[in-house]
Amino acid sequence: MHTVVLGAGVAGITSAWYLASQGRQVTVIDRQPLAASETSYANAGMVAPGHSYTWASPRAPGILWRSLRDSTQALRLKLNADPYMWVWLWKFLQNCTAERSRINTSRKLVLCRYSQERLQELTATLGLEYERISQGALYMYRDAASFQRGQANMRILSDGGMRLDVLDADGVITREPALASAREHIAGAIYCPSDESGDARMFTRALAERCRAAGVRFLMDTSIDRIEARGDRIAAVHTSAGPVTADEYVLSLGSYSPILARPLGYSLPIYPVKGYSVTFPIGDGHQPPTLAGVDENNLVAWARFGDRLRFTATAEFSGYDTRHSPRDFEPMLRAARQLFPNGADWSQPDHWAGLRPMTPENTPILGASRHGNLFLNTGHGHMGWTMACGTAQILADLMNGRKPAIDITGMTLA
Hints:
Layout: E1 2-6, H1 10-21, E2 25-29, E3 46-47, H2 60-67, E4 75-77, H3 83-94, H4 98-126, E5 137-141, H5 144-153, H6 155-159, E6 165-168, H7 169-175, E7 188-192, E8 196-197, H8 200-213, E9 217-219, E10 224-230, E11 233-239, E12 242-244, E13 248-251, H9 257-261, E14 271-281, E15 292-295, E16 300-305, E17 308-317, H10 330-339, E18 350-358, E19 365-368, E20 374-378, H11 384-399
Parallel strand pairs: 1-2, 1-13, 2-9, 4-17, 5-15, 13-20
Antiparallel strand pairs: 3-8, 5-7, 6-7, 10-11, 11-12, 14-17, 14-18, 15-16, 16-17, 19-20
Helix pairs in contact: 1-8, 1-11, 4-11
Family: Belongs to the DadA oxidoreductase family.
GO molecular function, one term: D-amino-acid dehydrogenase activity
Pfam families: DAO
């Protein structure tokens, strides 16, 4: 059985691994020269079931509205004439009720916890190195009112089985001494002891090498022009290297999945949401954090990878534009330097922007399509690193006629 996986991000490479492990002949196609060169390249790096909240919440419409005149908002809407953005936004707003937010968060939590188990299992089995830190994560609040809201919201996750500890300011600094100089800005935090961090790009490229050793074929630096259908089956994928045929195909192209799927008659509810990250070197004399975390008031995340410290922020609805300038990073850097004034070498920023493939519900689209030999593993949004191993295992189970280990209601094309 020959399977072609379209996409070499963390979702595509994990798909290739789990399918090849079941004895399939697998080919991976991607336009980039190396795996994990787009959305998986410089993401937040957090494996965070303890932060599985959906973005579609009752507060989100107000934030988007304020962003039209205040560019410092964490959710940022840039109006344009793209009809696909407006259709997606309408579906997103329909999910912004308290009830839909609760349902989507609960589903997301189940998937994230399952996926973290698969990631830990795979890491142990293969001995993968990706600068992993498994000491928990801090979700920090700067004032009493937001801290109180955070504790109320966490009940959705704690009801779903997550252990979450409430810490006062002293407790936060005990857990993360690098925050000591920022004590006046800390009201408290929610600590999730089971959350982790690690470099998704390192993981993906290490797993890609294991895939090669297992016989997976890679067609890198190869653009995918179109998918050809004949009747209710896919006949070929047309690429810059010529047509590629297989028994089955997996669409795992993140934000670009809808573009390839539209000519086949699909309207996948996925739209790119741009995120920004900046990574700094850590040298002698710096005092970086060890634990990953999120400044909840500014929605700035941080994670340490060996001798690097990364900050990520912003969800910008601006289409497929990945351009950025130093000015785009100023709000996150103000928050970062306030929290960790001696955390890294601030004079050497490595800026990046990438596209998160978001669905309105914030859960991915998995499994069968209307074409009998086309399967989906796409739309992972801002938690693709957390979800990747779980969704790849689910995909492999579905393609082999097995029932997944978790309920995937709300995560299929239907």
